Amino acid sequence: MKLYNSNSAPNPRRVRIFLAEKGLSIPRIEVDLAKLEHKTAEFSAVNLFQVIPALELDDGTVIGESIAICRYIEELYPEPNMFGATPLERATVEMWQRRVEWHLLLPIAQVFRHTHPHMAKLEEPQIADWAAANRPRALRNMTIFDDVLGDRPFVAGGRFTVADITGLIALDFTRPARIAIPPELVNLSRWHEALRARPSAAA
Amino acid sequence: MKLYNSNSAPNPRRVRIFLAEKGLSIPRIEVDLAKLEHKTAEFSAVNLFQVIPALELDDGTVIGESIAICRYIEELYPEPNMFGATPLERATVEMWQRRVEWHLLLPIAQVFRHTHPHMAKLEEPQIADWAAANRPRALRNMTIFDDVLGDRPFVAGGRFTVADITGLIALDFTRPARIAIPPELVNLSRWHEALRARPSAAA
Question: What would the pLDDT profile of A2-31 be if each residue is shown by its tens digit?
Fold first, then answer.
């Protein structure tokens, strides 16, 4: 297997953190987004949607989408379990993974994509009004997650799951998006710090 | 179990179609989005993110997010299989479900949400420039899916899966979004017609 990766993008980091939590290592092929290498014919043959990460299996089969890659790896290497161990837990983890992705990562990413000068070539056109609409959404949803995290250490419950990886990616993304996490959201900040303190966060 | 539903929104329809394909029926509680019933304290106690669908189990546990609900039902009622039967097929189905969701449903939904008068109360502010940026994205991605569907009857391969349900939702959503599916995309249109012809499409 080999992993098409970029260290400057959030989605490949989800897979790198997941692999680190599993104690796994997969050879990487770097794709330089600043040089638009993901837009080349060569990379389009790997992933026709021109996005990373992508996992190429030894027979040439390619799995795209970070969460699909992580789920595949979970099936090959079940421990530690990060997608849930029972039908209800699997549904719960998927629910929280999706909630974090759609209600936290997406609005934060939209602020970043539509304001940051580095994105001018990649997000055309950048729309300041759309960034401005997403900023209060991101902050409002942070408040909801802060409430949720008042009674549990991790977003899906008592233990670390793939939903927390999406959470770390989202909250770390507030920095380039220039969104300050309100200091009164103490549960959210405690969660963020706990995720950042795990060795996998450096992956 | 009971399903919080609205017949006027695309995401609950994903679950209704999934249930119909399984030959299942779950009692429904209607949530009137036009009356903002999803924003009430009563419904927020069911789903703090104020979105439908939501599946309430007999013990009061609530599963939100259409795909998490479908996956839970798949585990309780495995046949016909719609999430994949092997690790590789499950990863492939999830990849395609996510690709359809992010690259087709999302841009089409953004055009709808930011142009349709019915959304004025629900999507504030409506940003015409953001709708205009998503329209060509939706059309470009339709072209990619048309290519993909040149060598297969269903989007994830040889058989109907949950990824096709997301596809039907996305393509049906072009109508209120007022995006015409280009007639030269014959594979995409053939797929759309095949999905619409299934009895589950009426669910």
Answer: 999 999 899 999 999 999 999 999 999 999
